[in-house]
Specification:
- A hairpin with a 3-residue loop joins strand 5 and strand 6.
- The chain is α+β, with helices and mostly antiparallel strands.
- The chain is built from four helices and nine strands, in the order E-H-E-E-H-E-H-E-E-E-E-E-H.
- The two termini are 28 Å apart.
- Strands 1, 2, 3, 4, 5, 6, 7, 8 and 9 form a nine-stranded antiparallel β-sheet that branches.
- 30% of the residues lie in helices and 33% in strands.
């Protein structure tokens, strides 16, 4: 029999994509009082995930990955997703989003993203939010799964996530 124990705290990460850098900076201003100082912000990278978002947000989207210094309890992910949904609405104009914020968490074993869209591989958490097991960490590297969005399988994102994971593991050791 296994004995229940509290889960380790995890590293909050967000994928933010947008057209205008000002929108990203606004997101960062809003998030800082909630989550503290970011400890990693990636360089901008083109976001070429089909044309799914183009009609609403326009073309030439850019993505940045962000992680935060302060660790979070994994069970807080639905609250964070609901907050980011509100921020997206707050920053929208003319019925169109200017930013898309995909929060998730990184643990030693995987990357979990929060979503409002249920599917076979997405267990329900609460309040309309599901967990998406996006990447797993085995044999010293992140690996995609059959349902992983192609952009998360890219070398650049995985390299940054490995760097964020190393920071996370160091934080756990010193806590």
């Amino acid at each position: 029999m296994s004995s229940p124990r509290q889960a380790d705290s995890v590293k909050l990460v967000m994928s933010v994509f947008f057209r205008e850098e000002d929108a990203f900076l606004h997101v960062m201003q809003i998030m800082t009082p909630h989550f503290g100082r970011p400890d990693f912000i990636s360089a901008p990278m083109p976001f070429d995930f089909t044309t799914y978002y183009e009609k609403e947000m326009g073309g030439s989207l850019v993505r940045r990955l962000v992680s935060y210094e302060k660790l979070i309890p994994p069970e807080s992910l639905p609250d964070i997703k609901l907050l980011t949904n509100r921020v997206e609405v707050q920053l929208s104009g003319d019925g169109h989003r200017k930013v898309n914020i995909d929060p998730g968490y990184l643990s030693a074993a995987h990357l979990i993203l929060a979503t409002g869209k249920g599917y076979t591989h997405r267990p329900y958490l609460r309040d309309g939010i599901y967990a998406d097991l996006t990447l797993i960490f085995t044999d010293g590297a992140f690996h995609t799964l059959s349902w992983t969005y192609p952009d998360y399988g890219g070398q650049e994102i995985m390299a940054w996530l490995c760097m964020i994971r190393e920071k996370y593991l160091l934080t756990l050791k010193t806590a």
